[in-house]
Amino acid sequence: MNVIDEQVINRRKKLEDDRMPADASRKWGLALSGGGIRSATFCFGLVRALACNNVLLRFDLMSTVSGGGYIGSMLGNLFQRASSGNDARNINKAVGGCDSAWFIWWLRANGRYLIPRGARDQAFAFATYLRNLTAVHFELGMAAVLLGIALGLVDLGVWWSLERLGYASDTVFTYLRWWSKWIPAIWVLLPFFALAGAIYAGAYWALAWASRTRRFALGWLLTALAGVALVAMFQNFDSQSTDNDGATFRYAVWYVCYGLIGIWLVAAIVARATLPPRHDESPNDYSLRATRARHRLTRKLTGCLIVFAAVGIAGVVDRLAWYFAFELGSIVKPAAFLAIAAALLRVLMPLAAALAPRISSPLPIAIARLLGYVLALLLCAWWVALVYKLAMGELFTKIWPQYDQARTDLLLLLVPVAGYMLVTGANFTFLNLSSLHAFYKSRLTRSYLGAANHRRFGERAALGALESVPSTWPAGKSTISVREICFGDDSPLTRYQPQREGGPVHLLTVCVNQTVDPRGRLFNQDRCGLPLTVASGGHMRVSLGEWTALAEPGSLSIGAWTAISGAALSPGMGSVTRGGMAALATFAGVRLGYWWTRKERENLPHGAPMRRASRLLAKTRGLLNETFGSFAGTEGDNWFLTDGGHFENTGAYALLAERAQVIVLADCGADPKFRFGDLENLVRKARIDLGIRINFQRLRSDMPVSGTSHSCLQKLISFGSLNEISSPNSSACLALAKIRYDEDSEPGILIVVKPNLCAGLPVDLVNFKAQNVDFPQQTTADQFFSEAQFESYFMLGQFLGSDLDYGFIDYLLEHADEHFENDDCSPFDASSQTNGGAANGKLSGRLPSRIAATAVGTTLGIGAVTTTGVAAWQAIESARTAAARQESDEHNALKDLADLWAGLPSVNPGTPIPDSEAQAFGKVAAALVRTADTLCPSGEAEWFKASPLAARITRDTLQGCTNLAAAKRTAACRLLVEAATPALGTTLPQCIMKPADTLTLATLPVRYGPYDYGANAQYPSRHPCDPARYATLAAEADFEFLNGPLAEKPSALGRAGEEIESLAQGCHGLNHDKRLQASKPSTTVAQQPEVEPAPPPLAGFVPPASAPASASALHPPPPPASATAATTPASQAAAIAADICRNVTVYIQIYGSSQRGTANGYRDKWRAIGASVPAIEDVLDTARRNGRAGPMPVTHTTVRFHDRASKACAKALGPEVGTSEWTVEPLSANLQAIPHTIEVWIAPSPTP
Fold first, then answer.
1. Could you give the CA distance from residue 604 to residue 178 in angstroms, rounded to a whole number?
2. Partner of 73 for a Cys bridge, out of 38, 430, 562, 1245, CB 3.0 to 4.6 A?
3. Residue 1191 DSSP code
4. CB proximity list for 659: less than 8 A, separation 6 or greater
5. Lowest-pLDDT range of 550-554, 598-602, 980-984, 986-990
């Protein structure tokens, strides 16, 4: 005998009813199923009918789930106020016969209080929801910030490593040409995990060889030697091969073979090490050892795949976050999108949950899961983007990457975030405070449990709620509003005892979510949850375990358990828990579940020792568990409890576990198509878990019920098979099933009361059905019942339960075999639906003919849907046409601009424009001004700014207008020049104008990674030591050598002083010399006559060491004849002078064209002593071409040598041209020196 049986015996003693046995045998149970307000209202009507028939007190047990618990808890709250068995009978009488009692008045008035109504109430609910949602997203954000810091550190480490490799060797650039800016940096770890997975996979196949080979070491060594021999043969063959066509493919195949050999060799060692030690020499022993080893290897391979996927997802988050932070244009845009998505989900998720029973296809669920994962990814990426915006921007504040500064910012951000999470991580109560549980519990307690509280009605007696509402309101009489908290509404579960004076024992079922069962029970993995039943008086039972007592305050209150039992919308939903859908629920703040901690369950004192692992970041881990739908269930310290319907929705499971002989079940779950899914679930779980068989019955075909005077036989007309209940041609509304317990227990019966329409209904119900075609299976999402709705479900419950009196139920129990037979027809088989049992005298139809007119409404509804679909398609087509028209207009506008631009002469900075061209520039300027005025105010200029041609037209026109004399500028030219000067603050829109000072940046361009290693990377984004930079410079030099200055040089659009700053990073000298040699022009180009060179680097910058900017710097002319003659026999002194500058390159820098003649005279003399002297660079002209201010000239001509080997040559340069007053000094230590290089900076007024 368990504790429930003891309570049943005690309640029977209080009632002193001879019809009930004195012991706990032949228990009767009432099951009130889930279904929200619909179930609560229908069950209220059913309970009223049972009380009216004086049979309610015969039910020893009352099991409730979700919505059924609303009315069940109200009823229990009434019974617990009884002080004697007589009081219990008075409660039964009031429930069954008094229409004007306070508790009925309260339920009618406030049964819909669960949904906020009115501006003030809605504002309160919105404030609660917004506060909780903000807190949840903040906590999720803190976890994402930690991830962002980790990803940022990984990015910096990878980028720094790649940069260092580039400085060390040219070869690395060859292997990085496939690298794209869209490849996340953390993905460099993927090959390592892929390699580990390949080794474990190879070990799986190598296990047989590795385990059976007695001389494993010798076999492994021979295999390794064979692999080495194979490599040697290939190298020898390849060195002799002249076939170039298949070289790439041949190399790929051979390298794959090398890799497979290496993997196999390592895998063999891993396989050998994984094999467990042998116990004996029997074949079975080896087979078992090999099986275990293969299992371990497969698990390790699985781990590698999981880590591989995790790194891949982290990379997506990383790259998406960078896009949000620096490439999208505004980090507010994704935040606004996510906020709108959260609001829409908050509205749509309850509707989707209500429509779920109507959807049979798995596609919507798959789409919802995918949407959940995508939104979770976007949310995480946005928080990571905040980290990048705060810290990673420091990487680009100077010309070279600021790794240390960015890393410092990340670590400084880590301190407060990690500190907050560690300090507050043990605050597990946050999870319940931030959910909607407290809000839901408060509303349920006041609207339903408050109906039994006499204090709300100003009554003094404990059973004051049974008193009649006065027809004339007495003066001074007042009630406490449902919006106010009132003492006595709620009570701890341990004190909630409706059975104490004869009421039923109240059993509430909730679901303990458990997505992973460590014991390996596959069926529980399908269920993803366990039933937890709590009983009035403070007892609980998990699944089919023993009943255990609960202590305050961990027992919670009856209001809390009622709210938990009705927590239908939560990240965990039992068998329908899915990762993506859990993310949607958490993201939208739809969290009604409750975390029940071990401290609460076991009533541990505050400060009691807990496992360190369970406290560390418990809050964050719990929230992430909700987000990903991962729950440990009873195996963990903290249990996530939700709606009992997530395990079993009828409530009859708990009654079957107590071996109830009679069960009256109100099956009120949403079932518009009468598929009986909840009954199916009950039958299956009763058979699997309890070993109980439930066989549904149908009336015998030879059983006449019409024309008989026997009252019980007349009532049988209401019964039918499940198919008959679902058939529109039948009037059956009750079903009977036989319960087969084990051989030691008496069989029982299950009476199912399904909300449905049948003959004899009151006229108001019939009319309500005519106006509401879904009645009585309206969606559970509708929690706001109108007066007509409430009364209709309430009266339907009374009507369908009106035949269930004590005598009839007892008669069914005794004579079921006489009047019923097993129903072998499936309720899901449409062909088995009968005509309602006409042979048994049943009516031929469920509804009056006038209600059939509602089918017309359905047809019209389909028509309306079709019309809406056509309208939507027309709107989409209209939008598509408008977009195509806009694109055409954009192309035409650009074409008109290009036609005008084609007539303009070439312009360069500082080049005067003839007055005759003023009108041509004015026309293009007018077109640009008109374009700006049209596009900018409406925000449509993005396509224009994205066009390289449009940018070139704008720049050329602006340059031409600027070069024109002010008096010759047209009005359009003046407007254009003014618009390009932001400081003027002109009224003309400036969205298409690019100020001239932005063409040359003094910092690194912000991009994903400081440098772009791809084959198509732009010059400013390439690594300082990238050979492709020198190829670009060589191409520029060749072009300018043949065709004159470039209008737009890729190298000139980079960072200010890029050459010297790149060189300062320390490119390898040998590699630099090789790149410089490779970038020399072809012989044909070198033989062209020397023209004015392109501008070399600015003064103050070390010239070509990083990347020479002038043609002459890249293309030193051939040694002059005098230099060659120096090698002919002559005097010893002449030979020494001729060799002093051999292999030394001398760069001449001047400050204006007036110095060029003097400098040209120096070149010939220095070449005579062996120096290589490229073309002269005018640093002022270079600065002017690039739109920069000119450098400060030196006051005395200065010679700077880069290394000691060049010092003698540097000292000889002045005397060679007849002066000894030049300053000779080494290159600054802050700059990277290039061997055999000298710079000569000639002062504007050189000393003779």
1. 60
2. 562
3. P
4. 27, 741, 745, 748
5. 986-990
Long-range contacts of 844-849 (CB under 8 A, 24+ apart): 844/729, 845/728, 845/729, 845/731, 846/727, 846/728, 846/729, 846/730, 846/731, 846/756, 846/757, 846/758, 846/759, 847/728, 847/757, 847/766, 847/769, 848/766
SS3 424: helix
Sign (positive or negative) of CA dihedral 777, 782, 784, 786: negative
Residues 6 or more apart whose CB falls under 8 angstroms from that of 757 comprise 733, 765, 766, 769, 776, 796, 846, 847
Instruction: Give the β-pairing of 28-32 and 61-64.
Output: parallel
CA-nearest of 1025, 1047, 1046, 1151 to 1098 is: 1151
With a CB cutoff of 8 Å and minimum separation 6, the contacts of 617 are 421, 422, 425
612, HSE (Cβ side, Cα atoms, 13 Å): 0
Peptide bond into 672 cis (omega under 30): no
Distance CA 331, CA 324 (A): 6
Which residue is associated with the tokens 């509303």?
443
Please state the domain extents for the chain: 188-238+250-277+286-293, 887-1025, 1145-1241
CA-nearest of 147, 667, 64 to 417 is 147
**How far is 1148 from 495, CA to CA, in rounded Å?**
99
Among 1183, 1239, 1174, 1227, residue whose Cα is nearest residue 1203: 1227
CB 549 within 8 A of CB 539: yes
Rg of the chain in Å (alpha carbons): 44
pLDDT of 54 over the 90 cut: yes
For residues 487 and 623, is the Cβ–Cβ distance under 8 A?
A: no
The gap from C-alpha 1165 to its chain's centroid, in whole angstroms, comes to: 72
Query: 421: closest CA among 631, 629, 623, 636?
Result: 623
Q: What is the pLDDT of residue 359?
A: 57
Asked if 49 and 802 touch (Cβ cutoff 8 Å), the reply is: yes
Query: What is the tens place of the pLDDT at every residue in 257-286?
Result: 888 888 888 888 898 888 887 765 555 666
Angstrom distance (rounded) from CA 594 to CA 429: 10
CA distance 953 to 586: 51
Strand spans (E) along 700-819: 734-740, 748-753
Let me know if domain 1145-1241 sits in CATH 3.30.565.10. Answer: no
Contact yes or no for 676/709 (Cβ under 8 A)? no
Query: Within 180-215, where are the H helices?
Result: 190-212
Shortest CA distance to 973 belongs to which of 987, 985, 956?
956
Tokens 């204090």 appear where? Answer: 455
Q: What's the 3-state SS for 464-478?
A: HHHCECCCCCCCCCC
| 673-687, 861-875, 1120-1134, 1160-1174: segment of lowest average pLDDT | 1120-1134
Residue 1047 binned pLDDT confidence (cut-offs 50, 70, 90):
low
Identify whether the C-beta of residue 653 lies closer than 8 Å to the C-beta of residue 685.
Answer: yes
The rounded distance, in Å, linking the Cα atoms of 453 and 451 is 6
* pLDDT the model gives residue 1101: 35
DSSP 8-state class, residue 830: G
The token duo for 101 is: 């009692």
**993-1045 per-position pLDDT tens digit:** 654 444 444 567 788 888 888 888 887 788 888 888 777 777 777 777 677 66
Residues 6+ apart with CB under 8 A from 370: 580
Helix (H, G, I), strand (E, B) or coil at 176: coil
CA-angle at 388, arms to 385 and 392, nearest 5°: 160
Q: What is the rounded CA–CA span in Å between residue 1145 and residue 97?
A: 114
> What φ, ψ does residue 1239 adopt, rounded to 5°?
-115, 135
